[in-house]
Amino acid sequence: MAEPFIIETEDLRKNYGAVEAVRGLSLQVPAGSICGFIGRNGAGKTTTIKVLLGMARPTGGHARVFGLDADSENASVDIRRRTAFVSDDKDLYGYMTVAEMIRFTAAFFPRWRADLQQRYLRTFELPLDRKVKALSSGMRTKLFLLLALCRGAELLILDEPTSGLDPAMTEEVLRALVAHVASEEMTIFFSSHQLAEVDQIADRVVIIDRGRAVVTGALEDLRENFRRIQLVFDGEAPSPTFHAPGVERVWRKGRVLTVLSSDGSERIVDEARSLSPISVEVVPVTLKEIFLETVLTED
Amino acid sequence: MLWYKSWLETRWRFLIGLGLLILSAAATVAVYPQVVKLLPLVSNVDVSGQLGRQVAESVALSRDYRGYVWSSWFRENLTRLWTLFAVLLGTGGLLAQSAGGGTLFTLSLPVSRTQLLGVRAATSLAELLLLAFVPSFVIAILSPAVGQTYSIKDVLVHSACMFIAGSAFFSLTFLLSSVFNDVWRPLLLVLCVAIVMALSGFVIPSVAPYSPFRVMSAEVYFRREGLPWLGLIASAALSVAMLYWATRNIARQDF
Amino acid sequence: MLLRTNPSSGVPIYLQLMEQVKHAIETGALRPGDQLPGIRPLAEELVINPNTVAKAYRELEHEGVIELRHGAGAFVAGNAQAKKVTDKFRAGQTIVAAAVERLRARGVTAEEIRRLFEAELARLSQ
């Protein structure tokens, strides 16, 4: 009996005092997927992750991991037994050495993978005797990842896993993640500002803006369904109301009317033709464009 | 491994405290012969007021070694130093570490917050126990060097009372650490409380019998009038209540 | 195995992979009966999602270019099959190449050419 969604939130809300960090977020992450969680700074990514791991209590709505209620203290300990986490601050215990951090962490996880520990120590080139406070930020990130990947966890929750890493290290990290998913039964949920990374390894994406999910789905579906339709008119472009579904944004500039569609272009182009444009162009949209267009403020 | 982590986080406070206390204990013993020589000179001085009464009393007590150890060590040196370290060991914790101490990493481990707090409290309390007993034992061990003996039973009783009654200062600091997210405010607040309590005995004589410091030094036992049961139980109960309150605070905290 | 993908090119990665496999068959780098890299090793090497590789292989199987043998892996389809499919693809490619050539000669840019094709396909699918 497998839970179809490893992570699921329903109308999740979280307020810090008067600040509404998460305002009705609903998302689902299926087992075995690599899900990219993208959004601007302050959109609610880290808060959502904290709620999932029991570091913060939800103000409203529900959050479930492995089908367990993230808000329940006991269930949360169970969740954390099966989950590996990398925080965005990458802070560990400065006074411990790399070796001590590994020994410390391994003690909590009976399924610790000593074989992976050896492999990552080698590929990440981590010096066993150095204190964590003496590590560069790149090395700290890699140590954090090692501690996460060796736990024998079913779910990896990563908050900006490659921030501060140079391109070579980033590729190493992404390779380790892909290799991990390929060989273990694992789901990865990671937030990132690097859309290129998400493009590269994710198969699902959740875009969060101002505490709500504005786009969710399989990345391939997004690439196939999102289109930019550009209509040029003879005179001033009209402001029509489109009845076709999937109209995400419409903007006018002089004689040009541009439509961002999340549901293909056929029906919109159909409707548009009744307005007699002098030219119609349909172009695919990259993830970056999808992101930028769906999170910019509506005028 | 949580125990090991707590140890790493508190070991310098503990070791420095232990070092200072052992030195103080040794000095207390070593100075005794000098004190004996000076006694005849002091007994003639007439100082009035509460402070004067205390000084006169100390002089009177020092005539006999047991009285000297009680007034110099248990009532003064140990009480002051130990209380300081009780407060120092009560600081720290998840909240204070929020800014760069691996708090999120700790919270991502499969342990309950109660467990985290419990281990931290237990480690520090164990260290405080040692800080009360070990230097006092040193007094007993070194006494023969100045031609005196000090009873082991007295060491045990006085150290135990020090620990049980004084643990309230630790617990108060621990509790405040679950409310304030820096190390300084709990530290300074509790030290102020301790100082006010110590001074109030001078300023308002009627309050003096209720001072926690009297229970910590087990004055009642010293004067062979039994044990300060009421004070010990009240202190212990207060300690437990404050630690429990701290646990509830952290359990509810958003990080 | 020289397969490469470019995540930022705008073309879905699985399509890129499919094209690369077909190209390899066309040029003879892959011959009928040859085994393709496993899904996991290939995903690791290219640092892309294993599901993407799986999808590319499924689509290739659907088109008849490769065979997925349960437990054994992916193999280039037997003689006539793969060649026939890739031949159709290549014929299409020749036509498109010619059209693109002519458009370039008229000064139409690559981006404009792509938009023209998309618009035409959108128009046709009504």
SSE blueprint:
The complex is a heterotrimer of chains A (299), B (255) and C (126).
Chain A: E1 5-16, E2 19-30, E3 34-39, H1 45-52, E4 60-65, E5 68-69, H2 73-81, E6 83-86, H3 98-106, H4 114-124, H5 137-149, E7 155-159, H6 167-183, E8 187-191, H7 195-201, E9 204-209, E10 212-218, H8 219-225, E11 227-232, E12 247-253, E13 256-261, H9 266-273, E14 279-284, H10 287-295
Parallel strand pairs in A: 3-8, 3-9, 6-7, 7-8
Antiparallel strand pairs in A: 1-2, 1-4, 4-5, 9-10, 11-13, 11-14, 12-13
Helix pairs in contact in A: 4-5, 5-6
Chain B: H1 2-42, H2 49-61, H3 65-90, H4 103-107, H5 113-142, H6 152-177, H7 184-203, H8 212-216, H9 219-222, H10 229-252
Helix pairs in contact in B: 1-3, 1-5, 2-3, 3-5, 3-6, 3-7, 5-6, 5-10, 6-7, 6-10
Chain C: H1 13-27, H2 39-46, H3 50-62, E1 66-69, E2 73-76, H4 79-105, H5 110-124
Antiparallel strand pairs in C: 1-2
Helix pairs in contact in C: 1-3, 1-4, 2-3
Task: Give a structural overview.
The complex is a heterotrimer of chains A (299), B (255) and C (126). Chain A has ten helices and 14 strands. By secondary structure, chain A is an alpha/beta fold. Chain A has two domains: 5-221, Rossmann fold (3-Layer(aba) Sandwich); 226-295, 2-Layer Sandwich (Alpha-Beta Plaits). In chain A, the strands form three sheets. A six-stranded mixed β-sheet of chain A has the order 6-7-8-3-9-10, sandwiched between helices. A four-stranded antiparallel β-sheet of chain A has the order 2-1-4-5, with helices on one face. Chain A has a four-stranded antiparallel β-sheet with strand order 12-13-11-14. The mean pLDDT of chain A is 89. Chain B has one domain (2-252). Helix content of chain B is 76%, strand content 0%. Chain B has helices at residues 2-42, 49-61, 65-90, 103-107, 113-142, 152-177, 184-203, 212-216, 219-222, 229-252. Chain B starts with a helix and ends with a helix. Chain C has a two-stranded antiparallel ribbon. In chain C, α1 (13-27) crosses α4 (79-105) and α2 (39-46) packs across α3. In chain C, a hairpin with a 3-residue loop joins β1 and β2 (73-76). Chain C has five helices and two strands. The interface between A and B is medium-sized, with 30 and 22 residues.
